[in-house]
Amino acid sequence: MFSKFEFDGKLNPTFVEGAFKLPLSSIRAYLKEPITPSFVHVGSEGITRPDRPGLDLNLALLILHIDKFWSRGNLIRESGIPYTIVRPCALTEEPAGADLIFDQGDNITGKISREEVARICVAALESPYASGKTFEVKSVVPFSEPFTVDPQNPPPEKNYNVYFKTLKDGITGKEIIEQDPVPV
Length: 184
Hints:
Layout: E1 39-42, H1 66-78, E2 83-88, E3 90-92, E4 100-103, E5 111-113, H2 114-125, E6 133-139, H3 161-164, H4 174-178
Parallel strand pairs: 1-2, 2-6, 3-5
Antiparallel strand pairs: 4-6
């Protein structure tokens, strides 16, 4: 024992001041199973698209500070912290409740309610299926149609695990960029 005190609070008679060594072969944090995300990052769809062949940047909804967002995602993935990276399409003030499309690989555009994104983030923190995943999400409602909710007949609560279970590990959108360019 290297403690000056015993468990009962009295002095340890074998305690000696001075240097000591404690060789370690490794240190790991204890993670309770199942592992759920400790960190949810909300980015934006379109992060990996600027270098894709055939992309019309005039049609992209939000491609701002691409390098900054992309490097944040990489730092998060490399950190070892259980994470989820959510890339919503264009954010709206519409209510939550529309049917959703989850996708990976940075292939979709569309719109989604801010309220819905908040619900997805909270659900991700509790879901082992969301851990280590990067995905995009949008509503099925087109831009040209507003989404409204009838207060007398609200949509049912979503079980986001149904969506999270379909997600694959390791898909970030960068995979497309790293492939050989497709002739346009």
